[in-house]
From TrEMBL:
Motif (GXSXG): 272-276
Any one GO MF annotation of this record: carboxylic ester hydrolase activity
Pfam family, one: Patatin
Keyword Lipid metabolism annotated: yes
Biased composition (Polar residues): 54-80
Superkingdom field: Eukaryota
Entry's Gene Ontology BP terms: lipid catabolic process
Domain PNPLA positions: 239-452
Gene3D superfamilies for this protein: Cytosolic phospholipase A2 catalytic domain (3.40.1090.10)
Residues spanned by motif GXGXXG: 243-248
Keyword terms: Hydrolase, Lipid degradation, Lipid metabolism
The protein's name: PNPLA domain-containing protein
InterPro entries xref list: Acyl_Trfase/lysoPLipase, NTE, PNPLA_dom
């Protein structure tokens, strides 16, 4: 029997990681990118439900096939042997089609899923009320069987909703393309009107005077960076930047467009979630248009296994002992193995050494354009805001720790970051200390992880802290389902990280019910509505003005763990083009964003080797251009 089980286990591993599937599976880790399906995801047909009258069911042709058959990736249709092997390792839930049951077999007297046509759904939800009704399952369409055995994780959860099935039939999409559309020149968002009014006032101030009372002068500032303050107008404009791992290259392009249009000084405060914190930092220091984005398409794409190491994926799901390459890691780093995603390469090696953030400028700019770093409090179950004013960090190393908390994708980016508050001896001021370690106890300790759990789009905190107008940069395209679908790998990683590693049952239940995806879906719906509100005056602040910017439907979506230089570079271009069209004041310039993006980020950028041009004081592209000019001069 033992030998039989061992063969099943080895067979499962072979199925999982043959023909490059390990890399493919790893790309599915993004909690907002599970729309891509692998052959190991439970078929949609076994979880769909009948249409609910308040929701709209999309065309059946849009429903993806139950399995993937690809000769290029080596993934073949599921076989019975593979299914048994995966079930043995708990990598796949076994769905057995049973004879239809009677309604009284469910606790609330509704029909069971077997009585419902498989081809129903997915359901396109467009309002917050619809989303709430759907997630609360008011029709009882996703109820588990009355006699079904609950897992240990579900005991005490006081619900009988099958959240995996519920999520599988849900669809929420961004719809904001009317903003900046050349086909709707009369539609000008109130936020666009305000920032350009501020820009004109700032230009008048710059041309008329250079008084210190309106300009932030920075001592010992060789780059001469400052923010010219607009006249007091009673408004507070915030920039909210989404990250999403390597998908943040899109929002990196967007902030570059804001800089290109001369709107950087119109922003009062910057909020960043996940990788959006790094993007926001380079925006504040004005290390644009190339230096900041080069972090994405130069530094991270040439890091190899140092930044993203796919062989550690087995360790993330608790099976590291099955890979001989990980034996040493399993034995000597039992509780704190090396992560799949090494954030220290981004936040220390890159941001502090290879592409150093101009800390002197950043520190001074915090007085007039502060960066607010978002993270998720795993005990408090809420978004945590960190900044220099609150004392969350005092130097770049401490800020990097805060950013690590914001970027810490559960289970694949290392141990949780612990924010400890204390009062120092002979002092009354509260101080903070950040450290990475799982399962740290203490009343004054707050374990932190990725902002995606409670505030992936950080406009709510911006509004809560007084912002009247918010530009919200999204890294996912409009027109794609933002809820994602449940991956078995996500389940394994989430359970291991929150329960076994950290004993955070409440946080685990939050993730098990996919409430983080519900929150993201709700944010997108709110932004859809606000983004299409063109009639209000920007002076009307009875409710905040929210302006989302997302690339158009059909745009290629960069994955969280993308490492292709050209793919990342094109993502930067797409983000720039969309933000340019959305924010340019001259309506006749709308639609020219792609052309301008190619001028700012020419094809020539892909011609140089990032490993050759490694200056820490100027962008690699600037150094490359100087070399070309020098070569031309020498040849003449």
């Amino acid at each position: 029997m033992v030998q039989h089980h061992r063969q099943l286990a080895l067979g499962a591993i072979a199925c999982l990681f043959s023909s490059g599937l390990q890399s493919y599976a790893l790309l599915q880790l993004s909690v907002h990118n599970y729309g891509r399906r692998s052959a190991f995801v439970t078929p949609r047909s076994s979880t769909c439900i009948a249409p609910v009258t308040t929701l709209s069911s999309s065309n059946q042709d849009d429903v993806p096939s139950p399995s993937i058959e690809s000769t290029s990736s080596g993934i073949q249709t599921q076989t019975s042997k593979r299914t048994k092997a995966l079930e043995f390792l708990s990598l796949r839930k076994s769905y057995k089609h049973q004879k239809p049951t009677t309604p009284n077999e469910l606790e609330d007297g509704t029909k069971s899923k077997e009585d419902v046509p498989f081809e129903a759904g997915p359901f396109q939800v467009t309002t917050v009320d619809e989303l709430n009704d759907y997630y609360n399952d008011v029709r009882g369409r996703f109820r588990k069987r009355k006699g079904s055995k609950k897992s240990n994780d579900e005991v005490g959860s006081h619900d009988d909703i099958d959240y995996d099935a519920l999520l599988a039939s849900l669809s929420v999409k961004g719809d904001t393309q009317k903003i900046g559309s050349p086909d709707h020149k009369d539609a000008i968002h109130p936020v666009v009107k305000l920032v350009h009014e501020r820009r004109r006032q700032i230009e008048k101030i710059k041309s008329a005077t250079k008084n210190n009372d309106v300009t932030t002068q920075i001592n010992d500032n060789s780059r001469n960076i400052h923010r010219t303050m607009p006249p007091e107008d009673g408004f507070r404009v915030a920039l909210a930047v989404e990250g999403g791992g390597m998908r943040g290259c899109v929002t990196a392009g967007m902030v570059t467009a804001i800089h290109h249009l001369g709107l950087e000084d119109t922003i009062d405060v910057v909020y960043g979630s996940s990788a959006g914190t790094v993007i926001g930092a380079y925006f504040i220091t004005r290390q644009l248009p190339w230096y900041g984005p080069e972090v994405y398409y130069d530094a991270l794409t040439t890091a190899g296994d140092t930044f993203i190491n796919t062989k550690r994926f087995l360790r993330a799901v608790g099976l590291g002992f099955l890979d001989p390459r990980l034996v040493k890691d399993v034995i000597f780093r039992r509780n704190h193995g090396k992560p799949v995603l090494d954030l220290s390469f981004l936040l220390k090696t890159t941001m502090q050494e290879k592409k150093p953030l101009d800390w002197k400028t950043f520190e001074e700019m915090q007085k007039v354009q502060p960066l607010r770093i978002m993270a998720s409090g795993l005990k408090s179950q809420k978004a945590i805001v960190m900044d220099m004013e609150r004392g969350s960090f005092r130097n770049i190393k401490e800020m990097a720790n805060c950013m690590q908390a914001s970027c810490l994708l559960p289970g694949v980016a290392g141990a949780v970051m612990n924010l400890k508050s204390f009062v120092a001896e002979n002092s009354t001021a509260v101080e903070y200390q950040m450290s990475p370690r799982n399962r740290v106890e203490g009343e004054n300790n707050e374990p932190l992880a990725d902002a995606l759990m409670f505030e992936p789009l950080p406009f709510r905190s911006a509004v809560g802290e007084g912002a009247t107008h918010v530009i919200c940069l999204r890294s996912r395209p409009d027109g794609v389902d933002v809820t994602g679908k449940t991956s078995i790998f996500e389940k394994l990683i989430v359970r291991r990280f929150f329960l076994r590693k950290n004993r955070l049952r409440s946080a685990f239940q939050y993730m098990r019910k996919h409430l983080h995806k519900r929150r993201y879906a709700e944010d997108v719906i709110v932004l859809n509505e606000a983004g299409n509100d063109f009639d209000r005056s920007y002076a009307d602040t009875d409710k905040p003005h929210l302006m989302p910017i997302a690339v158009p439907p059909g745009s290629p979506e960069v994955t969280r763990l993308e490492t292709g230089r050209e793919a990342i570079f094109e993502g930067v271009r797409r983000g720039f083009a969309r933000a340019y069209d959305a924010l340019v004041e001259d309506v006749d310039q709308r639609g020219k964003g792609v052309e301008v993006a190619k001028q700012v980020f020419p094809d020539d950028i892909l011609n140089y080797d990032p490993l050759v041009y490694t200056s820490t004081t100027e962008s690699a592209y600037e150094a490359y251009l100087k070399t070309k000019e020098s070569s031309v001069a020498d040849s003449q």
